[in-house]
From TrEMBL:
Organism whose genome encodes this protein: Heyndrickxia ginsengihumi
Native organism taxonomy: Bacteria, Bacillati, Bacillota, Bacilli, Bacillales
Transmembrane segments: 51-69
UniProt-recorded name of the protein: Uncharacterized protein
InterPro entries assigned: NAD/diacylglycerol_kinase_sf
Top-rank taxon, per record: Bacteria
Keyword terms: Membrane, Transmembrane, Transmembrane helix
Family annotation (Gene3D superfamilies): 2.60.200.40
Length: 102
């Protein structure tokens, strides 16, 4: 691969609070993003990791999230075409055909 150039697509996002960024493979919006943000801000994950049961934190946050999550408006623009999703639960936005766990 030395000396070989490749072009890759990158997605761009902008939140209503002004936060912006890029993503390479997949952007989650909705319930999955809510759970990821909650678990990353929680002390629960650190405690569960110390006890070697880190995945349990996700299960616990999933159960809590089922009662706390409220759908919100998402507006997506692709190649100048806008689409609005008002009551969504799970909205993955993949760029490639393949999604990988990471």
């Amino acid at each position: 691969m030395i000396g070989c150039l490749r072009t890759y697509d990158a997605g761009y996002y902008q939140l209503k609070n002004g936060e912006t960024g890029y993503f390479m493979n997949n952007l989650g919006a909705g319930f999955d993003a809510y759970i990821a943000r909650q678990i990353n801000q929680s002390k629960l994950k650190k405690w569960c990791n110390r006890l070697y049961v880190g995945k349990l934190a996700y299960v616990m946050m999933l159960i809590i999230g089922l009662f706390q999550y409220r759908p919100s408006l998402v507006e997506v623009e692709v190649d100048g075409h806008k689409e609005r999703f008002e009551q969504h639960g799970l909205l993955p936005f993949p760029i490639s055909l393949f999604l990988e766990e990471g």
